[in-house]
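Field: sequence (string)
Field: structure_tokens (string)

Example rows 1 and 2, in order.
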Amino acid sequence: MDKLKPTHDEAFEQIMRSYGTRVLRLVIFLVKDRSLAEDITQDVFVKVYRNLPRFRGDSNIQTWLYRIVVNECKGYWRSWSFRNILPQSWIKGGAEHSTESAVLEQADRDQLVQQVMLLPKLYRQVIALHYYADLSIAEIAEILGASEGTVRTRLYRARQQLKQQMAGEEEWEWTRTNG
């Protein structure tokens, strides 16, 4: 017996439920402005809705979706508003923490995020896709339309630049990804 295929709207709703928050957070990370990220995220999902019937499944749905995210962010970076208006800071403190260690860990993460935000967008992209979206080098290469070697080089250079930016700070562990 054949499996019933979900309707277009059901498939879209499933994508929204599964990836909505992750896409928004990734866009915020890439464009540095929450309200703008909300607009871009909406544009991303409009494109997903329109193009879902044409999705052939040649790649993973997540890879396809993140490629749309990157392309929408690139469109923003090329836009007049990006070149002429300074983005607002989006980094805000989270909920109240009950212990000193939780506060210190959040401060460390906030500091790292601030330093990543200072990176050029090509480096910020690979850091966000690799460490935040937890994608492999191959997946990032597919999303960015670049070779795996190019992605590795950008990731290496991004790490080196972050090390230089944080030279006066304590040693940062790249495996440290608490939340």
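Row 2 begins here:
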Amino acid sequence: MITVLRELWTDTPIAFWLVLAAGLYYVVMAVRLTIVDIKHKLLPNRIVFPSAGIAGVLLLSASLFMLDGGTALRTVLGAVVMWAVYVVLRLISPSSMGYGDVKLAFVLGLYLGFIGWSAVFWGTVLAFLFGAVWGLALIVTRKGTGKTQIPFGPFMLAGALVAMVAG
């Protein structure tokens, strides 16, 4: 995202401000969702659904100002692909993946798709890697077992953030 912002600043200032607003919104959304998910193991629709709309409008508007239909298409497809992957995971193992995670995947796919397919890939991989490391830490410290359920939203948000910043 930082590289994208740097390029937009010189090429398309309006798109720069739209992407910056989307990034700042991401931080606010991520903090709110992380707190709620850790406390209640829930990613509420009242945060996730508006986030999809806000991210979609800001990022797609930016791609229009960039005159880049490919970025707009990739933004939408990134969201659909991530959502579909999480739907499949939910169908395979309903007890390990909540519907909130599936809905959040769509939102994160918008952000990551805007950046590129490698960001979609790495944001997803990092989420599972961060979650696995946390799960192993719980097992090693004997604060959990292999069956301990952990809120996955914070790991999804962290993985996407790393992919966006490194992107």
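free_text_note (row 2): The chain has one domain: 2-166.
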